[in-house]
């Protein structure tokens, strides 16, 4: 059975190393996996409950929710800002988790990685992992997805000068596929 992975990154920077992690995962994805690279979370409006009425929901929000719904798994890479997830990523998650009780972001297998500063995004991974887990998703925790100062070693186009980063992405991607297959996705 083919697994559909949605790859997203929580940065607006053109030269984001987190974008590079998702692009590297896309390059390394097994041939029997569908990997959709989504780079439009910055175009989503700020979450506003007034826009929940279907006739008022922006078309890009509908597209985002449909992509999340159709995915079996998510490969997310994001920087850490002020010890938490980036606002643009949190906003995308807020849109995907509405309306309550019938949202798109539940029952997924999720790999969460971070290329960020000296801690490699440890606080962001802990916070966002907790949020996504509480929403009914299966979170991968091993091996750790933290990459300290990754901007020096991975480019936005998904190339890296560090074989350990490629090995880590490959391992986490395989764990994502294996877990999704084991759960019958």
Automatic annotation (TrEMBL):
Protein name: Unannotated protein
Record PANTHER family: CHROMATE REDUCTASE, NAD(P)H-DEPENDENT FMN REDUCTASE LOT6
Cellular-component GO terms for this entry: cytosol
Organism of this sequence: freshwater metagenome
Pfam family, one: FMN_red
Segments forming domain NADPH-dependent FMN reductase-like: 4-144
Entry-linked InterPro entries: Flavoprotein-like_sf, FMN_Rdtase-like_dom, NAD(P)H-dep_reductase
Alphabetized GO MF terms: FMN binding; oxidoreductase activity
């Amino acid at each position: 059975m083919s697994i559909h992975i949605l790859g997203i990154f929580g940065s607006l920077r053109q030269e984001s190393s987190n974008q590079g992690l998702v692009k590297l995962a896309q390059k390394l994805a097994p041939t029997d996996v569908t990997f959709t690279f989504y780079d439009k979370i910055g175009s989503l409006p700020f979450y506003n409950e007034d826009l929940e009425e279907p006739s008022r929901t922006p078309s890009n929000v509908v597209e985002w929710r449909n992509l999340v719904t159709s995915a079996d798994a998510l490969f997310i890479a994001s920087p850490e800002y002020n010890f938490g997830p980036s606002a643009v990523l949190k906003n995308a998650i807020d849109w995907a988790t509405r309306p309550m009780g019938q949202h798109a972001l539940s029952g997924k297998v999720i790999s969460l990685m971070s290329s960020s500063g000296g801690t490699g995004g440890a606080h962001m991974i802990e916070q966002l992992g907790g949020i996504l887990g509480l929403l009914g998703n299966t979170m991968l925790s091993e091996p750790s997805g933290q990459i300290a100062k990754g901007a020096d070693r991975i480019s936005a186009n998904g190339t890296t000068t560090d074989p350990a980063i490629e090995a880590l992405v490959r391992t986490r991607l395989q764990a994502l596929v294996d877990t999704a297959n084991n759960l019958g996705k």
